[in-house]
Inverse folding.
């Protein structure tokens, strides 16, 4: 067992490779459930090849739902990364984005009391036993604090940590077996998918990580004195612990309620621009960014602000990658000069020493990347950008650009909202988004081109 240490706490990281009797028994159950669910779907759906692929994908998701929260999370990961998996499976896994059945309120009370060390009646003036929502790892209960503030409490499912670690170990063993026997599994990097899910899950299972990330993100949001139309709920640390997270209560609409949002918001495009501006600043200025911006985590609040919720999954953009992304957007939005992008690539060891000077490499990058960056958001696929960069220069043993790919996944979510609420909007050339990233350049270019930027 290893630990990852932070100044205020230790996060336990059980070994993923451990495989004992519990993991062996669970592996047998997983294989039986997935196999049985796929066979039933194929038998019911017909044996023709085209139908069989869809039936098998539906069977896999049936199995995920039977096997429980960790496999539901795996389905969510597949659904949010459609380009990395067969389309039939990615489409079927959209079912995993729905809420899951809640656990009893009496169990939630016990977990809160055990984590915080006090009876519910002493902690809260009111506590709602019926949850507001339920997800694979936790569910959310409304409450009123002792001082009268309206809040919500995110409560982890009973025994979920042990169950998910056992499932992850079993899934990792199965993935490695599949990689040895299947070319498709090797190409999809099945073991790497499970390891990524493990890293995310270990961090997500200790709510103190989420509390810290959310508090930091909320502070960063106000770093430039603007972004007042974007909100992140305040965390109440005195009511939070490893399995309990208490925060400010907010009310509104999920961002994919497109018709309702168009009906109540006077400028849906500005709503999207405000959200993306705040999120991009978190990527290229602060380095800590929301890593799961599906519609359930982005809301239009009743007071007209946009909100980012649930910081269980975050990305951390290291300074060299921040420099690269900043150079990329500077070239796209400001001056079209890709030489700084070339210099950033050298720092990341993405360019061979004898590949030419920055001007030569910059011209090649402009040819490869400018059409992607200057188009509509629907065409801004950072996964494709990353793939082109890997093709452009040899890595010499470095690992893949996971930070860039995670960023690209979130841009994929924003693209879906933009198609519905801001058609025709071009992210890569919107000066408003970069007002705090390149303040002098944006002000000068906006003045020269007679562009009036939103006040906030």
């Amino acid at each position: 067992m290893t630990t990852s240490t932070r100044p205020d706490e230790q996060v336990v990281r059980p070994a993923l490779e451990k495989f004992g009797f519990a993991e062996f028994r669970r592996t047998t159950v997983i294989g039986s459930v997935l196999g049985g669910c796929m066979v039933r779907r194929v038998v019911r759906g017909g044996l023709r090849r085209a139908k069989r692929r869809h039936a098998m994908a539906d069977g896999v998701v049936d199995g995920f739902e039977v096997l429980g929260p960790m496999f539901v999370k795996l389905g969510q990961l597949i659904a949010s990364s459609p380009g990395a998996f067969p389309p039939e499976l990615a489409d079927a896994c959209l079912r995993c984005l729905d809420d899951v059945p809640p656990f009893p309120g009496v169990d939630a009370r016990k977990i809160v009391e055990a984590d915080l060390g006090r009876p519910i009646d002493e902690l809260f003036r009111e506590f709602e036993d019926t949850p507001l929502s339920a997800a694979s790892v936790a569910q959310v209960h409304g409450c009123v604090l002792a001082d009268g503030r309206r809040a919500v409490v995110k409560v982890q499912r009973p025994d979920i940590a042990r169950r998910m670690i056992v499932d992850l170990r079993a899934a990792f063993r199965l993935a490695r077996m599949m990689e040895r026997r299947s070319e498709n599994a090797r190409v999809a990097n099945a073991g790497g998918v499970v390891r990524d899910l493990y890293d995310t899950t270990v961090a997500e299972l200790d709510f103190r990580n989420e509390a810290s990330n959310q508090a930091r993100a909320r502070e960063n949001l106000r770093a430039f004195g603007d972004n007042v139309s974007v909100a992140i709920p305040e965390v109440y640390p005195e009511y939070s612990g490893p399995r309990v997270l208490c925060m400010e209560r907010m009310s509104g609409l999920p961002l994919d309620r497109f018709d309702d949002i168009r009906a109540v918001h006077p400028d849906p495009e500005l709503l999207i621009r405000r959200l993306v501006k705040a999120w991009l600043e978190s990527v290229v200025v602060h380095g800590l960014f929301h890593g799961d911006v599906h519609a359930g985590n982005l809301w239009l609040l009743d007071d007209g602000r946009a909100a980012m919720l649930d910081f269980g999954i975050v990305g951390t953009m290291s300074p060299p990658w921040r420099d690269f992304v900043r150079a990329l957007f500077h070239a796209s939005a400001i001056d079209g000069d890709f030489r700084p992008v070339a210099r950033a690539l050298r720092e990341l060891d993405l360019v061979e020493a004898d590949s030419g000077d920055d001007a030569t490499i910059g011209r090649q990058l402009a040819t490869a990347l400018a059409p992607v960056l200057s188009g509509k958001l629907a065409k801004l696929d950072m996964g494709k950008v990353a793939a082109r960069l890997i093709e452009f220069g040899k890595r010499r043993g470095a690992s893949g650009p996971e930070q860039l790919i995670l960023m690209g996944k979130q841009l994929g979510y924003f693209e879906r909202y933009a198609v519905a609420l801001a058609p025709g909007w071009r992210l890569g050339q919107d000066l408003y988004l970069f007002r705090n990233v390149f303040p002098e350049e944006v002000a000068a270019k906006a003045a020269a081109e007679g562009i009036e930027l939103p006040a906030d």
Notes: The first strand starts at residue 2 and ends at 6. Residues 21-45 form the longest helix (25 residues). The chain is about 55% helix and 10% strand.
